[in-house]
């Protein structure tokens, strides 16, 4: 933008080029006078003087206030993407052999048992770091544990990669080479080293020290990073490594703001978003050290020179896209409020920065596109710009445009049931958190927000998705984040006691009036036993949208304080094979993959029903997202602590064999095993809850533990085993599976045996005997009818019974060995009967009322009944032989 384009051009008593500044604004008259005189140099100086003297205006916050290495490395144009590699310190090697020790406690205790080494400076020196293959002086990790004991480990894998030889493997070499030289982010001489330690079974680390021995001809500084990525030294090469750290150190051109070869594509976005602006500006504010202001200002002006007008199609100020321009402008506004008084800010630099921010705002005003979170971010930034820069002529229009958009957008970003249109809880959390912040900002600045009801509805959706621990289930492109602070702040903002209760883990507010929830438009159902950390939680989805995975009818399950069937995460957005498996395959989720193909996201499907009861939930779902077969999944969730999953597969088209793979995934430290014969899978976490998975047809499935991956958070990935049950067959088929969580060690005694239901195949009606007849389960896939199985007879859609309970759906009669257990005059929608050892009988069901009239009431076999509680209230009962009558 020319000076005349920004300041305006005055000639013959009129503006020949209109200014972008509002000279009617108090304090800008000296600038206007210089412009009218044609003295743009003086105008720039006076504009800088004005901003240095201007009273503070709320500038918003930074997207990041800390970033490891930002203060030390960013001035040298060294940048790390995300949290995949976290800078620890720089180590000095050479001349000759030297042994160095670094405190890596923070890396180990934050779940990063791997390390990465890279040259600090671009020079010709090559450091040779002893590897684990060396006879002496190999890398050592010394751990001091909570009990005072010391554990010493050597790497399980270590290697280096070399850009000049991208396909070579160096995992067996005695030395790991580290070197970097030349200009640009890397050259053929760039070599990086990687180490990984196995900390399985190690807990209570109080201190961790990494010792490395290496040699170099002259002094050599090497950066040490922690990471949480698994790798195999026998296969790691430059070509298959997703790299997160690149260096332009010594390059006179500095960053080129483009995507380096071999980097995750997020690199292209994060660097131009100026995530390092917060750490640099805040450190300058704290210390007054002019180096930090000088660094930040030079990076801003370098970006303007190199990249600001790269994308002619999108317009100046938008590189490399709308969301990234918004994130950058947001950080620049907050940074400008701090550095505007810096002696390092020259009139030329100040004007260039203001021109760019003005141009970016104009772009964001008229260009809005992308997913809900992207559009929201664009307009939030525009709103902040309108408040912070009242001197811009267009500021009032920005204010109106942004405020109207943010109030209206919630309708566009949510389904009619209140669910979020992006299929990821992490992005939903961020979306809500930004609304919390911007609505409070609007209130402080007298700007009206009109969509509080819709915001509350979306907050309730996130609340329902949350695990009882308050963390997210990590579906879609997500990791499991603590949702509580967002829910608490939203509860405070909206005066919502239920959001506040969940957000504070019950310390404030009111416990939600419901537990389980159905979102039919979003195509999600959640079964929840309660709102304490030890309650159970099961989520099933057929959702889709941006950031979704091919995971329809997938289950995530939590009980007794632990995710027992987690979503396996995302890792990165790169083309790394592990990330592609996690994000692109159905096999990586707790559902059924058909014919080795991932699901599509355009086919029909949904949640057909959620029947809720104080004692249980019954969920039905279906999808046609696989070309080979229609998949239906039914989940009986007993709040007493048991899940039964029934799957039915109906082939599409001509009769041919299909391969059906039912998968169950676990965290990396689950230590699963499969028992031969029953083919039951059990987990063996070192402490806490575990899970037993028992298939009903062990002889009909090929059961194996397979190698997969688990990404507990972005940029972290671990090897993990999962249980695979495969059927290859023609025609319709079923899987019936019992999932039994345990507070401690997994129950290895659980047995499941299929019971015949007359001559009906299991895809019409299925029945199971649990634990040698101690319990029974029955489900009709077709029209209900009186049917017998084992010693039971039942006329409804679903039955579960054991010594302490009876659960039934849409039935009126249950008999065992010819004796009635339940006898109702008409079908009951849902009924749960629980028998207490003290003679208390609990009856729960929809629409039930107290009644002792045997002609209208439900007869229940309870010969030892002493008290009856109906839907939480004590009611009278009458006895007739073995039956009691208390509810109709």
UniProtKB/TrEMBL annotation:
<keyword id="KW-0732">Signal</keyword>
<keyword id="KW-0456">Lyase</keyword>
<dbReference type="InterPro" id="IPR055372">
    <property type="entry name" value="CBM96"/>
</dbReference>
<keyword id="KW-0574">Periplasm</keyword>
<dbReference type="Pfam" id="PF16889">
    <property type="entry name" value="Hepar_II_III_N"/>
</dbReference>
<dbReference type="InterPro" id="IPR012480">
    <property type="entry name" value="Hepar_II_III_C"/>
</dbReference>
<dbReference type="Pfam" id="PF07940">
    <property type="entry name" value="Hepar_II_III_C"/>
</dbReference>
<feature type="domain" description="Carbohydrate-binding module family 96">
    <location>
        <begin position="151"/>
        <end position="240"/>
    </location>
</feature>
<keyword id="KW-0964">Secreted</keyword>
<feature type="domain" description="Heparin-sulfate lyase N-terminal">
    <location>
        <begin position="251"/>
        <end position="487"/>
    </location>
</feature>
<protein>
    <recommendedName>
        <fullName>Heparinase II/III-like protein</fullName>
    </recommendedName>
</protein>
<dbReference type="InterPro" id="IPR031680">
    <property type="entry name" value="Hepar_II_III_N"/>
</dbReference>
<feature type="domain" description="Heparinase II/III-like C-terminal">
    <location>
        <begin position="544"/>
        <end position="714"/>
    </location>
</feature>
<dbReference type="Pfam" id="PF24517">
    <property type="entry name" value="CBM96"/>
</dbReference>
<dbReference type="InterPro" id="IPR008929">
    <property type="entry name" value="Chondroitin_lyas"/>
</dbReference>
């Amino acid at each position: 933008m020319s000076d005349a384009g920004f300041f305006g051009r005055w000639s013959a008593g009129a503006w020949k080029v209109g200014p972008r500044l509002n000279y009617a604004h108090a304090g800008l008259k000296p600038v206007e006078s210089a412009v009218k005189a044609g003295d743009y140099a003086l105008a720039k100086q006076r504009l800088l003087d004005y901003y240095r003297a201007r009273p503070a205006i709320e500038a918003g916050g930074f997207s990041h206030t800390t970033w490891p290495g930002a203060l030390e490395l960013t001035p040298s144009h060294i940048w790390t993407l995300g949290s995949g590699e976290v800078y620890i310190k720089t180590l000095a090697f050479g001349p000759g052999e030297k042994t160095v020790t670094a405190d890596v406690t923070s890396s180990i205790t934050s779940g990063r048992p791997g390390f990465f080494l890279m040259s600090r400076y671009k020079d010709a020196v090559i450091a040779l770091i002893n590897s684990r293959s060396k006879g002496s002086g190999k890398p050592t990790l010394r751990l001091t544990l909570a009990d005072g004991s010391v554990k010493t480990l050597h790497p399980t894998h270590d290697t280096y990669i070399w850009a000049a030889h991208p396909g070579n493997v160096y995992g067996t070499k005695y030395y790991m080479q580290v070197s970097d030289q030349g200009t640009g982010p890397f050259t053929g001489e760039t070599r990086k080293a990687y180490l990984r330690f196995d900390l399985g079974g190690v807990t209570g680390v109080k201190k961790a020290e990494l010792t490395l021995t290496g040699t170099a001809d002259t002094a050599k500084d090497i950066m040490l990073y922690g990471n949480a990525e698994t790798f195999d030294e026998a296969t790691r090469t430059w070509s298959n490594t997703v790299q997160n750290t690149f260096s332009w150190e010594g390059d006179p051109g500095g960053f080129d703001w483009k995507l380096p070869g071999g980097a995750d594509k997020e690199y292209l976005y994060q660097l131009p978003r100026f995530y390092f602006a917060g750490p640099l500006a805040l450190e300058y504010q704290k210390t007054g050290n002019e180096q930090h202001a000088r660094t930040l200002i030079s990076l801003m002006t370098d970006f303007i020179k190199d990249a600001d007008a790269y994308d002619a199609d999108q317009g100046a100020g938008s590189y490399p896209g709308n969301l990234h321009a918004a994130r950058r402008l947001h950080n620049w506004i907050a940074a400008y409020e701090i550095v505007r008084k810096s002696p390092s800010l020259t009139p030329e630099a100040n004007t260039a920065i203001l021109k760019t921010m003005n141009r970016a705002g104009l772009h964001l005003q008229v260009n809005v596109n992308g997913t809900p979170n992207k559009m929201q971010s664009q307009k939030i930034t525009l709103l902040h710009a309108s408040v912070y820069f009242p001197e811009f002529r267009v500021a009032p229009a920005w204010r109106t445009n942004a405020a109207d958009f943010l109030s209206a957008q919630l309708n566009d970003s949510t389904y009619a049931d209140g669910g979020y249109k992006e299929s990821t809880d992490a992005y939903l959390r961020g979306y809500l958190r930004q609304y919390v912040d911007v609505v409070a900002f609007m209130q402080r600045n007298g700007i009206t927000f009109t969509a509080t009801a819709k915001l509350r509805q979306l907050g309730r959706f996130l609340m329902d998705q949350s695990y009882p621990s308050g963390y997210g289930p990590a579906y879609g492109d997500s990791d499991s984040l603590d949702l509580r602070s967002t829910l608490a702040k939203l509860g405070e903002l909206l005066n919502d006691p239920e959001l506040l209760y969940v957000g504070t883990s019950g310390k404030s507010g009111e416990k939600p009036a419901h537990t389980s929830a159905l979102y039919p438009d979003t195509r999600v159902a959640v079964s929840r036993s309660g709102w304490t950390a030890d309650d159970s939680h099961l989520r099933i989805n057929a959702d889709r949208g941006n950031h979704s995975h091919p995971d329809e009818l997938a289950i995530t399950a939590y009980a007794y304080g632990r995710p027992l069937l987690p979503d396996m995460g995302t890792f990165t957005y790169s083309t790394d094979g592990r990330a592609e498996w996690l994000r692109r395959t159905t096999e990586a989720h707790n559902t059924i993959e058909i014919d080795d193909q991932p699901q599509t996201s355009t086919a029909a499907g949904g949640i057909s029903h959620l029947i809720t009861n104080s004692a249980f939930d019954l969920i039905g779902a279906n999808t046609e997202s696989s070309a080979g077969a229609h998949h239906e999944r039914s989940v009986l969730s007993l709040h007493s602590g048991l899940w039964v999953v029934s799957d039915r597969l109906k082939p599409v088209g001509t009769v041919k064999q299909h391969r059906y793979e039912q998968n169950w995934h676990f965290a990396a430290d689950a230590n699963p095993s499969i028992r031969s014969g029953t083919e039951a899978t059990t987990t063996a976490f070192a402490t806490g809850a575990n899970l037993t998975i028992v298939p009903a047809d062990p002889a009909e499935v090929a059961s194996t533990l397979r190698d997969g991956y688990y990404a507990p958070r972005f940029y972290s990935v671990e090897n993990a085993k999962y249980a695979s049950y495969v059927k290859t067959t023609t025609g319709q088929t079923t899987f019936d599976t019992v999932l039994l969580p345990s507070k401690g060690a997994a129950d290895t005694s659980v047995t499941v045996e299929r019971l015949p239901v007359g001559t009906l195949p299991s895809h019409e009606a299925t029945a199971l005997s649990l634990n040698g007849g101690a319990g029974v389960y029955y489900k009709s896939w077709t029209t209900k009818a009186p049917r017998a199985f084992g010693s039971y007879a039942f006329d409804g859609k679903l039955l579960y019974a054991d010594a302490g309970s009876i659960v039934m759906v849409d039935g009126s009669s249950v008999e065992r060995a010819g004796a009635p257990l339940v006898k109702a005059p008409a079908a009951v929608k849902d009924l749960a009967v629980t028998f207490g050892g003290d003679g208390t009988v609990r009856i729960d069901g929809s629409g039930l009322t107290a009644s002792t009239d045997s002609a209208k009431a439900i007869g229940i076999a309870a010969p030892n009944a002493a008290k009856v509680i109906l839907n939480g209230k004590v009611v009278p009962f009458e006895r007739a032989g073995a039956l009691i009558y208390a509810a109709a």
